[in-house]
Q: What sequence folds into this?
């Protein structure tokens, strides 16, 4: 008899296997006319609560990510097929209530000289972060064969934050992942047009980094702080949090936080 497995998210006994990321993010063969975007999908042991009972969150994530303007053609195609089928089953105010607050339609120029109708609004960040963290937990379980216990922090690259420091931090993290190749455990994902990811090796403090990319454009960065690890003292971050004007150099680039406004004319 095999060893009893526990859920990737909690201590309950696993009753099924959960796709990571959710299965609905990957286009179906009936839409792609035989092109397989569901090769060797990742699954992890899961309880009912963290699998079948979060199906509405999975659909929310699919609609949020595939519809991004900068998504690759696979993401756009998925939005126009499976995404539109899902929206037709919803109430007219579904986007406003669940996906984008203060939702409105706008027009942007397209490559053929015409205009494209797009949805504009404020994303449901709290729910989006919850969904992304579930994926991070699942990928950790798959990569290291154990449940992560500790704190996960996330920065979403495709969200435009009102806080200028968070905007700069997005660029900083992206560049850091590009430069620190020696820590990279390798880019993984059998369907990279839909999703791929890369973990960084644990640093001297036991902290682990993760980068995920959906539809070629929607990036998110994660930091895993194990319950037994000690978060390092970072003078630069302490200065930033305290409101001090700070410039951090990474490679040949400088990232400026708490910029000083020049009111001189």
A:
């Amino acid at each position: 008899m095999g060893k009893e497995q526990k859920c990737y998210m909690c201590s309950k006994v696993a009753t099924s296997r959960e796709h990571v990321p959710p299965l609905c993010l990957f286009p179906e063969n009936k839409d792609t006319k035989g092109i397989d975007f569901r090769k060797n999908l990742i699954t992890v042991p899961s309880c009912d609560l963290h699998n079948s009972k979060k199906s509405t969150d999975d659909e929310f994530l699919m609609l949020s990510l595939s519809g991004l303007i900068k998504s690759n053609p696979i993401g756009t195609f998925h939005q126009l097929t499976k995404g539109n089928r899902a929206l037709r089953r919803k109430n007219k105010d579904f986007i406003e209530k669940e996906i984008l607050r203060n939702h409105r339609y706008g027009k942007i120029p397209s490559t053929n000289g015409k205009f494209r109708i797009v949805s504009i609004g404020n994303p449901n960040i709290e729910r989006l972060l919850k969904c992304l963290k579930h994926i991070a937990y699942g990928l950790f379980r798959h990569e290291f064969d154990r449940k992560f216990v500790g704190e996960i922090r996330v920065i979403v690259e495709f969200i435009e934050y009102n806080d200028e420091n968070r905007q700069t931090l997005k660029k900083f993290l992206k560049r850091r992942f590009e430069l620190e190749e020696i820590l990279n455990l390798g880019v993984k994902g059998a369907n990279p047009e839909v999703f791929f990811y890369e973990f960084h090796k644990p640093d001297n403090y036991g902290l682990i980094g993760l980068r995920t990319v959906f539809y070629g454009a929607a990036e998110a960065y994660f930091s895993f702080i194990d319950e037994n690890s000690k978060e390092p003292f970072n003078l630069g971050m302490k200065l930033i949090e305290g409101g001090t004007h700070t410039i951090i150099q990474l490679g040949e680039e400088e990232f400026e936080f708490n910029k000083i406004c020049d009111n001189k004319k």
Observations:
- The chain has seven helices and eleven strands.
- The radius of gyration is 20 Å.
- The longest strand covers residues 100-109.
